Amino acid sequence: MADENWKPKIIAIICNWCSYAGADLAGGARIQYPPDIRAIRVMCTGRVDPLFILKAFQDGADGVLVSGCHFGDCHYLEGNYKAAKRMFLLKSVLKNIGLDDKRLRMTFVSASEGAKWGTVMEDVVKTINELGPSPLKEFAR
Amino acid sequence: MAEVKKNEEPRIGVFVCHCGTNIAGSIDVKEVMEYARTLPNVIVADDYQYMCSTPGQNKIAEAIDEQKLTGVVVAACSPRLHEPTFRNATKAGGLNPFRFEMANIREQNSWVHMHQPEEATAKAKDAVRIAVAKASLLEDLVPKSVPVEKAAMVVGGGVGGMQAALDLANAGIKTYLVEKSPTIGGRMSQLDKTFPTLDCSQCILTPKMVDVYRNEGIELLTYTEVEQVEGYIGNFDVTLRKKARGVITPEEAEARGIVGGGCTGCGDCVDVCPVIKPNPFELGMAPRKAIYIYHPQVSPLIYTVDFDACVKCGLCVEACGDKKAVDLEMKDELMNVKVGTVVLATGYDIFPIEKKFEWGYKNYDNVITSLEFERLICASGPTGGHLVRPSDGETPKRVAFVLCAGSRDNTGVGKPYCSRFCCMYSLKHAHQIIEKIPGVVPYIFYMDIRSFGKMYEEFYYRIQDEGAKFIRGRVANILEDPVTKNLHVNAEDTLLGRPIDMEVDMVVLAAAVQPTAETEKTRRLFGVSCSQDGWLLEAHPKLNPCGTTTAGVYLAGVCQGPKDIPDTVAQAEGAASAASIPIHRGEVELEPYFAQCIEEKCAGCGLCVNLCPYSALSLVEKDGRTVMQVTEAKCKGCGTCGGFCPGGAIWMQHFATPQIVAQIDAFLLGGEQ
Ligand SMILES: Cc1cc2nc3c(=O)[nH]c(=O)nc-3n(C[C@H](O)[C@H](O)[C@H](O)COP(=O)(O)OP(=O)(O)OC[C@H]3O[C@@H](n4cnc5c(N)ncnc54)[C@H](O)[C@@H]3O)c2cc1C
Ligand code: SF4
Ligand code: SF4
Ligand code: FES
Fold first, then answer.
1. Ligand 3 geometric centre to CA of B652 (Å)
2. Which residues of A touch B529 (CB under 8 A)?
3. Does residue B80 sit within a domain?
4. What are phi and psi of B23, to 5 degrees?
5. Same structural domain for residues B447 and B526?
6. Residue B532 carries which DSSP code?
């Protein structure tokens, strides 16, 4: 299945206040990382409906990253706790439908952690490359 | 308002920015623009050197007008930088500003994939496609205006906080100045003289302290801490803890019906108090009683009981007599204040330099810190201004100053940053001993002297001329002669390229500064971020150094990063000015990212009600059904409720489920597969 030209399709849903700002900082510092991830900005990871993630996998995403503020730092107090809980549950759902739960990842990157954002990008791309194309891909569309 | 209205055909305009070569250097802008033209709903696509320039913005306005656009996409830098700019341009074209969507192809693309032009261009196309998908579903929104409380709060009463409070009050704004210690003044009141002018620190500070105390617009709350913060710009609801100080002011006495009573600052109580403790203001080098003031110039001049030390013998109560100022049963009190904006000016602490054990601080008697030096050289300090060796009380003749002690230290023990004022105050210290001790030689061990301010370099030359000796090299270790208590300073003189072992009578460590221990608590209370080194994080390092990412909260002084008094005062004036703007305008606009209930879908389960951290949701009866209702004034737009509602009954304005799903679909299903 894994054809030579396969490039991972990874989507990141990230919060405006910490991870998006951290990603911007990585840009300012010209930290270079793999170009395989596309980001969607939400105000807080609390906004991330499990449906979004299931939809992404259904659409053939090879990986999904949700990234927000560190615990205690959420701009809205506790959105990231609630998101983390949901992601945790969602991981078991993914396993049940036969997807490796490493395809879904939640990270915490603050507005000052540009370098960490770069590391997260490297790491996510590496993981998904190792896992190969999502088995759900053929059902997409 | 909450239903999905889609009776218009989306007509989207896409504008791709070159940003000089910032974007065009790694992304084929023309290709992205041509690609945009092929996307569904895109009516017009264009590119321009600098979209944020006036001609760039005009392109947007003109296209909206000519092409009757319903949505605008700009692919450029980060929305965190220019979203407001392009929203204004969209508005100028006659479209609702929330019909605008940005594709970040600079910070999160061209700058991070500089050597992969093909991949960067492909990623930019995806970003544009995702943005067009969202723009096609955007709706008109109206920002909500809320009134701003006509009062401000300053936290921290050092020179920065005092300046901010004075400026705010003098601008006609009622200002609460909250200081955790019994007096205002901060670190500056511990200093003897100030570089480069050498004016006496207390002499220039005391008038300011008096101004603060007398200013009718300032409500000075010393010995008070912030307990809890609720609300947002315009309407912060702050709970303060007034710690029991055991002594009442004349005003408080009057309120208690004690005529002519309250603390007059006479100090009669101190004479009789039997408990002796080290005085933290003198860094433990002088004693104080359990009832105390830090120093004679404190403001307010009210004594304080240290209840951890007090034995409740009651002698002070007796000594105070009819003034009845001492109340040993006093308890902490909570008070509530409402303010529109807040300035944080909580200052700094000294790095515990004993962690650099090779320099022997706390181990060797005659190794002291610069702040201890300030107290020892100060006429009102524990030695009456005579610099003496702690080991034997002798006047030192050879004094080594060790700069960058714990600063610019990448060993993991110290701090990587420059503490910024140590070079200058160490030059000042050299001058002070030359002035006071005939025949003394100051030896300054430095990495490089950073004399960056106005008249600072000149001051450096002056100290060189006065006879201070400069040795360029980091001190490797310091050893004590156990008999004489003299110290051997071992370093490499990097200019002469040889090791030196210098015997001196005293060593002064210019210890690094660090964020205070409570910084973490304070920043969480106010929802402010910190940088990696722990200092409070400004909204933008260059363009918004006084603001924070939390609207309505501003920064002044060293809490944002090391800076000397002139820079602290300047930043405080900036922060005060920024904090006064929303108050003077009288209202602020909140981004209308509110939750809305789609009542037909709402099952009235109430699960969302408990999720909202701001209690913005409630259940109400409507047409015989139970449905959720949003109180817009409380909703901050996090979307936590919207991310959860099992029935999809919550419409998050500007981040609605169909809009986000459209973005996901556009990325995964829309491009070349
Ligand atoms: C040895 C030494 C010598 C120096 N010499 C000079 C000099 O010659 N010239 C010069 O320009 N600069 C000098 N400086 C630097 C100077 O001390 C600072 O620039 C200045 O004190 C910064 O003022 P600030 O208001 O930011 O902080 P601070 O002076 O630290 O004041 C902060 C205040 O906030 C209070 N606070 C802290 N946390 C809270 C809280 N959570 N709630 C309520 N209150 C709180 C503190 O009690 C304190 O009163 C020297 C510094 C040192 C260490
Ligand atoms: S200000 Fe001078 S002494 Fe202080 S850390 Fe910077 S270079 Fe070192
Ligand atoms: S969006 Fe956030 S703040 Fe608004 S009602 Fe929902 S949970 Fe509460
Ligand atoms: S705002 Fe970043 S996770 Fe909530």
1. 9
2. 17-18, 73, 110-112
3. yes
4. -100, -50
5. no
6. T
Are B445 and B302 found together in one domain? no
Say yes or no: ipTM exceeds 0.85. Answer: yes
CB atoms within 10 A of CB B193: 21
B658 within a domain of the structure (yes/no): no
Beta-bridge partners for B488: B479, B503
CATH number at residue B623: 3.30.70.3270
pLDDT tens digits, B324-342? 999 999 999 999 999 999 9
Q: Do B664 and A110 touch (CB under 8 A)?
A: no
Please indicate, yes or no, if residue B5 is contained in any of the structural domains.
Answer: no
Q: Which residue has the tokens 């693309």?
A: B109
B646: contact with A, CB 8 A cutoff: no
B549 touches chain A (CB under 8 A): yes
The domain containing residue B265 runs over which residues? 250-331
Beta carbons of A20 and B637 less than 8 Å apart: no
A 10 A CB-CB count for A101 gives 15
- Count structural domains, chain B: 5
Does the pLDDT value for residue B1 go beyond 60? no
Residue B410 to residues B33, B350, B426, B572: CA-CA distances in angstroms?
46, 18, 22, 31
B119 contact A CB<8A: yes
B628 lines ligand 3 (CB under 6 A): no
In degrees and rounded to multiples of 5, residue B194 shows phi and psi of -125, 135
Q: What is the pLDDT of residues A28-84, one digit of tens each?
A: 999 999 999 999 999 999 999 999 999 999 999 999 999 999 998 898 888 999 999
- Does this model's pTM top 0.90? no
Q: Does residue B477 sit in the same domain as residue B371?
A: yes
Please report whether residue B669 resides in a domain: no
Mention every residue, 6+ apart, whose C-beta is less than 8 A from residue B172.
B217
Query: Do B259 and B307 lie in a common domain?
Result: yes
**Chain A residues closer than 8 Å to B537 by CB:** 111-112
Name the closest ligand to CA B446.
2
The answer to whether residue B667 neighbours chain A at the CB level (below 8 Å) is yes
Each residue's pLDDT tens digit, B166-210: 999 999 999 999 999 999 999 999 999 999 999 999 999 999 999
Contact B637 A43 (CB under 8 A): yes
Which CATH number belongs to the domain containing residue B162 in this structure? 3.50.50.60
